[in-house]
Amino acid sequence: MHRNEEILKKMEARRTRCTVYTRVMGYHRPVESFNIGKKGEHRQRKQFVER
After folding, report:
1. pLDDT of residue 1
2. 25 in the Ramachandran plot: left (φ > 0), alpha (ψ -120 to 50) or beta?
3. Which of 10, 14, 32, 33 has the fewest CB atoms within 10 Å, counting from its CB?
4. What span, in angstroms and rounded, lies between the C-alpha atoms of 35 and 2?
5. Alpha carbon distance 23, 9 (integer Å)
6. Looking at residue 13, what is its pLDDT?
């Protein structure tokens, strides 16, 4: 097991669920409300850092 996995396992009881929002068509929407196809598309998106 990797060190990060060990830490997550140890702290699992203290973790809380969070809601992830993304911008769609000019609105911020929670990802959990997406249908299965849109959730898959969201997972495939590439993130970048604007400089």
Report:
1. 58
2. left
3. 14
4. 33
5. 31
6. 87
Amino acid at 50: E
> Could you tell me where the DSSP H helices lie in the chain?
3-10, 36-44
Between vectors from CA 42 to CA 39 and to CA 22, what angle results, nearest 5°? Answer: 100
Total-model pTM = 0.53
pLDDT, tens digit (0-9, with 9 covering 90-100), for 8-48: 888 988 888 899 998 878 889 999 999 999 999 989 988 88
28 Cβ contact partners less than 8 Å away, ≥ 6 residues apart: 21, 22
